[in-house]
């Protein structure tokens, strides 16, 4: 909408010059139209100065256009001087509105809709003010006497005062006419009446920005009108006042508005709702007479329209008289449906009793017209001459629901009901009927009929000059920005010669990105962004700059779509698809906004894959063919909000509320029972839903509660609450915009981002806002915003499918023509992949795969994408999708569009050229776009996968990771495809052992499976119309759709509290989940849960449409063809980026298999691993006692009134009088309160039976207690409240409380409650005790106990942890073990952990055993008591070894390679598989090779994990991977590689695990993968069987490929065993430790860790000082850190830096600033003495640091004895003959105090170093 008075418009002289004769315009308007060239919506291009014309120079009265004669002369002159001749839409609308009819105006952008609706309203206002304030009552001047203005119908804003008047004046005086439901007529006020302040005209728009725009125009209008009133000597008549009320209006202006109400109020539906809910606001609105709803199509199509519809019914009921309704829009269809939405419904008697002549007389109490014809201001009484219309009839005026004309529509309006098919019917194969057929009237429960609404449909031709184009060829180069260059070039080409351009994009992220790119590309700020996350002031500044010509371009989202005036716009560019024809019309309509001007729009497609949709939309936009508007019906959440608002003001009978509700078209058939069910919830029937109103069931009326009004105000509207962070300037505190919550969580202080084309640096982040400062950094990050992505409608999808079908047929015909006449064009067609015959394609579709790839990928970049089965991702998809991976060529994810330039340049045959030419005109394609579209269809045809309107194409292919992709190609749109996806997934869940990935898009559905079985396609075919509803109902509870729908419904219905501030999204989700969980037992009777299901099926899904399509498939009208391919087709490649994105970003959630494993983790297994004593510490006794007291005390304290006593009864359930009074702390008033409740019949009696005393219940629960215990929902309702008030109960206690339930009933009810997770076995129950508690109570007790345990855990310094770990691992001095049994204990503790081969016998085992002997290790291996496995990852210099006990097969299986892994020597491995374990010599003889060769190959297999030996000796040889120092400590070791038998490690796999369910790894990776081995039913350790599974993160295991989805096993988890392993060795579990040492990913361990914490086994906290990461340990370890460690003064310990007992560099950071040369290397050592860190030794003593207790450096001379002992130990372990010390604390040793200590030890000085020989170290020992 563009209104008059905009700044920067044409001057008055220019307007006057153009008001005369001008040439024919592009739209076909002829000379003499007297409309300014820059065309104004209602003359919108500037009105400043028009009012300066002196009265003496006004035109004569006879020169006025006839359509202006009914208006007040001042208004008529003002309009004529400012805008010239009215438009056709204005003429027709004025006639209808002045006649008093409800009016719906449909007119194109730039046709003057605003003044078409507003001018009659201003006229009515002006006349009413004249009547009230003019001294003589004439008020209209002499011209008014000649042309008397029509009088008004009853005007509630004018209080008549007695005065002498003629009979005719008295008869038409306001207030005398009875109130009726017919629309009030326009007219004047009455002379000498008392003016009652208040709003007369409401102007409602859907956007705050549009409100401000309308307000600015209206303000300018009324200022000029007031000036003219003064010039025409109308002194004393106050001017018309105007105000705007939105959420941005300051409180001071709101208060001033209430004190002095404006005449015209511009507002939004939500602000109108809030005003109607306040006392002062209602008084201000009581005088309202007319309401204008602008952009009504935007409101009618969603819940905001339902909300507004009810508000209008409430407002009209409050006024007590009709409210004239006027609707405006450029895009609405069908108009009859929108007209019913606008007018609503009313009883026939409300307007049937009115005589037509009465309304005419009321509207025309003036002198008879000269010709005695039409009563409207003397207009000639001919149908086409009314209001000055041309004879040909240039407007279509339709009476809404002609069938209801019997209801008494006034003749004045009937005279306008002339039907004209002025709009030309769309032509072409895709066209539908020109106008929608009238819908049959639905039956109304109360017999209401629609209010008559006059439909005005302008026939003015608004030319939409639309063109579809594409960027040029991509210039591939070294720059990551190169793919943006063609888009920038094309945009600049399109802008050439344009002064102002609007570029529309589909996401805020793309708006910011495109601005950054354009400005950087041109080197100047030529454009700015405009979107809803920018501050309003900054948006207004951008609009002003464009109006003033100081800005050339705005890149906007839908924030500029709905009629906001930005001045003259030469061109609109839409980047990518506008998603709907209505949005395209609105956006392109911003250009050429003036009357009669053509709107120029360019749709720029970035990639050819979207061309089919864009082509269809371009045609629909040019033909103004839009999708029908679907008005939401019976939205329960909106009704709940309105019901609370109604009840908050006064007591209202339910029947009266029901009648009011049914007046809204959105609720015209709302069932009465649903209203009663809704009121029951809002009145507090269910304890978990807060009561919001009072319902007196005796009087059947609802009334206010103390919280009703506040709830209605804070929860106003239907827009979901956002978790976005407001952004404020750090210095000025001014609002800058807002950022997505997730983006803020991923940002840090100092990050730079772009918002509103400016760069901002984050200076601080608080809990509810972000503070920023401006910065000049041009390398700013582009924020992202999450949102639900738009999708195409099914109707649009049908047309896209028709286009595909048509193009396929045309290309087939072209191929046939080419084959009949061989020529160069025929050769060209063959080159680009002309298809084989249809039967050949279906039989062997993969033979054309190479050609398909060549067409889809003309450049190297796109070819690579096609070859790997994934197309490069676009930079900004729909906002619901996370940021996508960036292709190497595009860097930051630029669009791929330019790569198709090669395709459009490919040769075409003559017949194909004809197809290209035929496409261009009807579909508005330029040559490049048409060629790209044909090349896309041609490439798709070459694959044989050809979806059409009558054929589904199912494509099956495998990607490089071995995943099977099933793509169902269709054009049905996302809603239909999402419905089919859910149904198919539900079918798959019952037959697949794997997790299924599914993705529904507009163009089809993709499923990804780890394995493939053709029989699974039966799951796709088995979805039928008969089982569709059942499948969806089963699938929805497990999908996010239901949770999202329920949360939003609960917010809108006020069940979830809203606040004025920001609420984090996680809190909103948590509250919604809690309410959903509480409501589930009452699913059939809780209306909001059923509403959520209906909304999912109706709005998120499209069940009726899919059911129809499935029926067509059953009947054979839609076929299904399955194609097996090696590479994805062009259409299938569009899904690849989404799948890659999912694999990258899905790590935040748990795999279903992991969830299943977690559920199977039992307390018994935890008790066996960690000890039953640990489980008994789960609940803190103090917490338990505090919880007992809390449950015995009412939540809000003792009741202090009857209402509070009632609330207590509602929370606790049935109580005896003694129990009820006892809960009131024996307050003497409690008995009186109870009597009061009984007298009010708010409580009722309940007899439990069994001889027990009677109890009281809330009266509204009587029906539920009457069904107890027979029905499940009643049993849950009654029993659960009793359970919630107790700490615990037994089955016997439950049966005793409710004798009607009985012992058998209690025993059957408890399992049901357990299954529903309403109760749990009490965590504090004794062993084998059947003690239960509420699930919420159990969770609270555990949570508080966990918090108490965390509070008791204190962080210890890393040195103390080092001392603790060394002691636990027997590496501390004095804790070492001895002998063979000691060695077995050490290996058992370290089992499962891989360390380099050289570590084991150099320091790991010697440091833990008093006198380690290698032969003891060989004996353990030879006897079978110990096993070892090897592995060596890519890039590792040395192989690693881990030891295992044979019974720990679950640990072994975690590291075994997958059976399908490729061995380095398959022949050798196969021999070991077949022949079993063999010695080296026999094996070499059998193979006929040298033992040394075979040994080398065996060692290679060792490092692949495929082979092992029953002795350790073979690894000590020089040919092993530990070439550096593999046998340095091998004193007395059994040498020789011939010892021991070699065997295949797969024989260690548990026998059940055949590996048949494991997905095959891609052969191209060449990487060994770990097996998902199943354990045996039991193990030698006696532990329950565990199943090990591969990790979701394999990088640290040398496996570069992510595991297949669903590869985790479903029947057990190794998580507990690995947690036990980590705790046994390291005493702690953290993310970094798990990544380095465990085969389980952190995502697998974390749920188990949390569960163990809840059970009291573990405690979580910051356990190591300076390490903020989450850490877990046992309660015993946490407690021991607070006590003196045993043996803390046992002397000196030397620990290798690479030893697992050293926490530094693994669990904790190194001390100091990191410049001390600290590293986990074998030649570095920590020296501990008496529990403190004494020395840090590097490079076998070359550099030494003397450290303090916590690792700080100290310079004093070291203790000689300690130093000697430490160096002697190092020399012995490393086999060194001497130690040379060169540096001490980073300085030359001879310059430090340590030199004297070394001399005292007998060290020899060698230049700057001191040398200690082995004899010197041992001499003083």
Automatic annotation (TrEMBL):
Q: Domain (Helicase C-terminal): give its ranges.
A: 490-637
* UniProt entry tagged with the keyword Hydrolase: yes
Q: Which GO terms describe its molecular function?
A: ATP binding; ATP hydrolysis activity; DNA binding; helicase activity
According to the entry, every stretch annotated as the Helicase ATP-binding domain falls at 94-350
Output the InterPro entries linked to this UniProt entry.
ATP-dep_Helicase, DEAD/DEAH_box_helicase_dom, Helicase_ATP-bd, Helicase_C-like, Lhr-like_DEAD/DEAH_assoc, Lhr_WH_dom, P-loop_NTPase, WH3_Lhr
Question: Per UniProt, which keywords does this protein have?
Answer: ATP-binding, DNA damage, DNA repair, DNA-binding, Helicase, Hydrolase, Isomerase, Nucleotide-binding
Q: Which residue intervals make up region (Disordered)? A: 1-65, 137-190, 819-838, 870-907, 1510-1609
Question: Which BP terms from GO are recorded?
Answer: DNA repair
Q: Which SUPFAM superfamilies match?
A: P-loop containing nucleoside triphosphate hydrolases
Keyword DNA-binding appears in the UniProt entry: yes
Protein name, UniProt field = Helicase domain protein
């Amino acid at each position: 909408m563009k209104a008059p008075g905009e700044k920067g418009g044409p001057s008055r002289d220019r307007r006057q010059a153009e008001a005369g004769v001008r040439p024919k315009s592009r739209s076909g308007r002829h000379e003499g139209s007297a409309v300014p060239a820059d065309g104004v919506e209602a003359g919108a291009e500037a009105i400043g100065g028009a009012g300066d014309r002196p009265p003496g120079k006004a035109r004569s009265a006879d020169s006025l256009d006839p359509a202006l004669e009914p208006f007040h002369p001042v208004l008529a002159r003002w309009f004529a001087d400012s805008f010239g001749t009215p438009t056709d839409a204005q003429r027709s609308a004025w006639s209808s509105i002045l006649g008093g009819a409800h009016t719906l105006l449909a007119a194109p952008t730039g046709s003057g809709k605003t003044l078409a609706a507003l001018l009659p309203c201003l006229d009515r206002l002006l006349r009413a003010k004249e009547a009230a304030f003019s001294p003589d009552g004439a008020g209209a001047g002499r011209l008014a006497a000649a042309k008397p203005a029509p009088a008004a119908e009853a005007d509630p804003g004018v209080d008549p005062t007695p005065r002498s008047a003629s009979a005719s004046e008295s008869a038409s005086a306001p207030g005398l006419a009875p109130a009726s439901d017919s629309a009030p007529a326009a007219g004047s006020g009455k002379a000498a009446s008392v003016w009652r302040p208040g709003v007369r005209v409401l102007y409602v728009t859907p956007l705050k920005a549009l409100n401000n725009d309308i307000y600015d125009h209206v303000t300018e209008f009324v200022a000029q009108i007031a000036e003219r009133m003064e010039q025409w000597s109308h002194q004393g008549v106050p001017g018309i006042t105007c105000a705007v009320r939105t959420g941005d209006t300051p409180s001071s202006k709101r208060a001033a508005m209430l004190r002095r109400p404006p005449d015209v109020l511009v507002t939004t539906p939500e602000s109108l709702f809030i005003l109607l809910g306040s006392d002062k606001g209602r008084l201000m609105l009581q005088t309202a007479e007319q309401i204008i709803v602008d952009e009504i199509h935007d409101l009618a199509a969603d819940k905001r329209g339902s909300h507004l519809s009810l508000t209008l019914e409430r407002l009209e009921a409050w006024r007590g008289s009709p409210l004239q309704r006027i609707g405006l829009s450029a895009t609405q269809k069908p108009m009859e449906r929108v007209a019913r939405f606008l007018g609503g419904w009313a009883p026939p008697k409300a307007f049937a009793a009115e005589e037509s002549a009465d309304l005419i007389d009321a509207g025309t109490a003036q002198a008879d017209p000269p010709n005695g014809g039409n009563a409207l201001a003397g207009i000639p009484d001919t149908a086409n001459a009314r209001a000055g219309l041309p004879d040909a009839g240039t407007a279509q005026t339709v009476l809404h629901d002609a069938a209801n004309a019997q209801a008494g529509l006034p003749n004045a309006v009937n005279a306008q009901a002339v039907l004209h098919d002025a709009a030309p019917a769309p032509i072409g194969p895709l066209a539908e009927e020109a106008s929608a057929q009238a819908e049959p009237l639905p039956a109304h429960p109360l017999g209401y009929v629609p209010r008559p609404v006059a439909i005005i449909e302008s026939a003015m031709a608004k030319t939409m000059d639309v063109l579809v184009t594409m960027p040029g060829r991509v210039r591939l180069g070294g720059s990551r920005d190169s793919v943006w260059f063609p888009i920038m070039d094309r945009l600049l080409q399109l802008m050439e010669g344009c002064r102002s351009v609007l570029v529309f994009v589909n996401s805020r992220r793309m708006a910011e990105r495109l601005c950054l790119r354009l400005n950087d590309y041109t080197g100047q700020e030529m454009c700015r962004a405009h979107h809803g996350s920018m501050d309003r002031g900054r948006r207004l500044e951008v609009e002003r700059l464009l109006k003033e010509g100081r800005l050339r371009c705005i890149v906007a989202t839908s924030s500029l779509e709905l009629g906001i005036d930005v001045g003259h716009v030469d061109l609109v560019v839409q980047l990518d698809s506008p998603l709907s024809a209505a949005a395209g019309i609105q956006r392109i309509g911003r250009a050429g906004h003036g009357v009669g001007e053509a709107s120029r729009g360019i749709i720029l497609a970035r990639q050819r894959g979207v061309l089919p949709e864009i082509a269809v939309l371009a045609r629909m936009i040019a033909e103004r063919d839009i999708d029908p508007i679907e008005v939401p019906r019976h939205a329960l959440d909106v009704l709940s909000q309105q019901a609370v608002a109604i009840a908050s003001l006064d007591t209202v009978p339910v029947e009266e509320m029901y009648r009011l509700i049914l007046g809204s078209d959105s609720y015209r058939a709302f069932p009465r029972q649903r209203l009663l069910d809704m009121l029951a919830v809002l009145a507090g029937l269910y304890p978990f839903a807060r009561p919001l109103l009072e319902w007196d069931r005796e009087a059947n009326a609802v009334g206010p509660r103390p919280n009703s009004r506040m709830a209605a105000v804070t929860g106003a509207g239907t827009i979901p609450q956002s978790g976005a962070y407001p952004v404020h300037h750090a210095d000025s505190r001014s609002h800058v915009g807002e950022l997505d919550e997730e983006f803020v969580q991923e940002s840090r202080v100092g990050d730079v981002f772009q918002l509103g084309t400016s760069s901002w640096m984050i200076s601080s982040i608080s809990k509810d806002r972000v503070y920023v400062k401006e910065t000049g950094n041009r390398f700013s990050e582009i924020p992202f915003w999450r949102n639900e992505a738009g999708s195409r409608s099914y109707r649009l999808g049908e047309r896209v499918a028709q286009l595909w079908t048509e193009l396929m047929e045309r290309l087939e015909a072209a191929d046939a023509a080419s084959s009949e006449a061989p020529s160069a064009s025929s050769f060209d067609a063959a080159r680009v992949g002309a298809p084989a015959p249809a039967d050949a394609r279906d039989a062997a579709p993969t033979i054309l795969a190479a050609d398909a790839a060549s067409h889809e990928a003309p450049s190297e970049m796109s070819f690579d994408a096609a070859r790997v089965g994934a197309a490069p991702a676009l930079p900004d998809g729909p906002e619901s999708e996370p940021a996508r991976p960036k292709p190497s060529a595009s860097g930051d994810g630029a669009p791929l569009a330019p790569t198709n330039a090669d395709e459009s340049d490919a040769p075409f045959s003559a017949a194909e050229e004809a197809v290209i030419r035929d496409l261009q005109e009807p579909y508005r394609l330029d040559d490049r776009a048409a060629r790209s579209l044909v090349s896309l269809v041609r490439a798709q045809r070459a694959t044989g996968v050809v979806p059409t309107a009558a054929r589904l194409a199912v494509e099956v292919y495998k990607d490089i990771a071995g995943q099977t992709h099933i793509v169902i190609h269709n054009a049905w749109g996302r809603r239909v495809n999402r419905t089919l996806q859910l149904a198919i997934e539900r079918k798959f869940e019952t037959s697949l052992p794997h997790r299924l990935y599914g993705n529904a898009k507009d163009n089809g559905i993709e499923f990804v499976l780890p394995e493939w079985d053709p029989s699974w396609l039966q799951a796709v075919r088995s979805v039928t119309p008969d089982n569709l509803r059942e499948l969806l109902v089963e699938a929805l509870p497990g999908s996010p759709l239901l949770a999202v729908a329920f949360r939003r419904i609960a917010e809108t219905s006020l069940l979830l509290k809203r606040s004025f501030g920001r609420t984090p999204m996680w809190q909103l989700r948590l509250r919604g989940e809690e309410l959903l969980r509480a409501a589930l037992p009452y699913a059939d009777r809780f209306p909001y849960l059923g509403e959520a299901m209906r909304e999912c099926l109706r709005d998120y899904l499209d069940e009726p449409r899919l059911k129809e399509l499935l029926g067509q498939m059953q009947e054979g009208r839609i076929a299904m063809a399955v194609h097996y391919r090696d590479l994805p087709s062009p259409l299938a490649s569009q899904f690849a980026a989404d799948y890659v994105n999912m694999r990258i970003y899905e790590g935040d959630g748990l795999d279903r298999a992991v969830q299943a494993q977690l559920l199977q983790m039992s307390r018994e297994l935890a008790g066996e691993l960690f000890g039953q004593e640990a489980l008994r510490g789960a609940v803190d006794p103090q917490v338990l006692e505090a919880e007992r007291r809390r449950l015995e005390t009412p939540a809000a304290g003792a009741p202090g009134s009857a209402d509070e006593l009632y609330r207590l009864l509602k929370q606790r359930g049935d109580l005896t009088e003694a129990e009820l009074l006892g809960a009131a702390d024996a307050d003497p008033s409690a008995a009186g309160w109870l009597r009061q409740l009984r007298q009010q019949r708010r409580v009722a009696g309940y007899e439990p039976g069994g001889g027990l005393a009677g109890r009281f219940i809330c009266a509204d629960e009587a029906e539920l207690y009457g069904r107890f215990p027979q029905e499940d929902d009643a049993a849950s309702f009654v029993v659960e409240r009793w359970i919630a008030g107790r700490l615990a109960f037994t089955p016997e206690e439950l049966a005793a409380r409710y004798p009607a339930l009985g012992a058998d009933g209690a025993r059957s009810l408890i399992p049901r409650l357990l299954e529903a997770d309403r109760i749990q076995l009490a965590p504090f129950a004794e062993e084998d005790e059947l003690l239960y508690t509420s699930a919420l109570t159990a969770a609270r007790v555990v949570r508080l106990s966990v918090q108490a345990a965390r509070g008791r855990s204190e962080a210890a310094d890393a040195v103390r942890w080092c001392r603790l770990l060394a002691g636990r691992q027997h590496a501390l001095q004095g804790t070492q073990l001895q002998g063979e049994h000691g060695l077995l204990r050490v290996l058992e503790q370290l089992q499962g952990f891989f360390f380099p081969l050289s570590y084991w016998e150099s320091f790991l085992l010697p440091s833990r055993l008093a006198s380690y002997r290698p032969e003891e290790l060989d004996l353990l291996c030879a006897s079978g008591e110990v096993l070892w496995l090897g592995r060596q990852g890519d890039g590792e210099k040395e192989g690693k070894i881990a030891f295992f006990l044979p019974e720990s097969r679950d640990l072994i299986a975690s590291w075994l390679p997958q059976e399908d892994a490729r061995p380095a020597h398959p022949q050798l491995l196969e021999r070991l598989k077949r022949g079993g374990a063999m010695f080296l010599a026999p094996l070499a003889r059998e193979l006929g090779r040298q033992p040394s060769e075979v040994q080398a190959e065996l060692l290679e297999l060792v490092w692949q994990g495929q082979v092992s030996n029953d002795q350790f000796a073979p690894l000590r040889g020089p040919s092993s991977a530990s070439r550096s120092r593999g046998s340095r400590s091998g004193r007395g070791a059994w040498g020789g590689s011939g010892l021991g038998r070699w065997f295949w490690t797969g024989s260690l796999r548990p026998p059940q695990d055949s590996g048949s369910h494991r997905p095959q790894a891609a052969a191209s990776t060449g990487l060994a993968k770990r097996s998902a081995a199943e354990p045996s039913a039991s193990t030698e350790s006696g532990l329950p069987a565990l199943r090990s599974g591969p990790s979701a993160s394999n990088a640290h295991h040398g496996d570069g490929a992510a595991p297949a989805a669903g590869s985790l096993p479903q029947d057990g988890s190794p998580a507990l065993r690995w947690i036990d392993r980590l705790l046994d060795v390291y005493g702690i579990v953290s993310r970094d430790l798990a990544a380095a040492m465990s085969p389980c990913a952190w995502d697998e361990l974390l749920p188990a860790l949390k569960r163990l914490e809840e059970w009291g086994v573990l405690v979580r906290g910051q356990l190591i000082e300076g390490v903020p990461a989450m850490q877990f340990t046992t309660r015993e370890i946490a407690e021991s850190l607070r006590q003196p460690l045993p043996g803390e003064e046992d002397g000196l310990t030397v620990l290798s830096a690479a030893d697992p007992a050293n926490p530094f560099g693994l669990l904790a950071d190194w001390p100091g600033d990191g410049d001390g040369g600290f590293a986990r290397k074998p030649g570095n050592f920590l020296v501990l003495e008496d529990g403190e860190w004494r020395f840090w030794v590097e490079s076998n003593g070359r550099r030494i640091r003397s450290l303090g207790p916590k690792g700080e450096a100290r310079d004093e001379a070291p203790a000689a004895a300690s130093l000697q002992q430490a160096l002697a130990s190092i020399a012995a372990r490393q086999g060194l003959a001497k130690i040379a010390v060169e540096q001490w604390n980073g300085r030359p040793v001879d310059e430090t105090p340590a030199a004297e200590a070394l001399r005292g030890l007998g060290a020899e000085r060698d230049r700057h170093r001191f040398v200690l020989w082995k004899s010197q170290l041992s001499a003083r020992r």
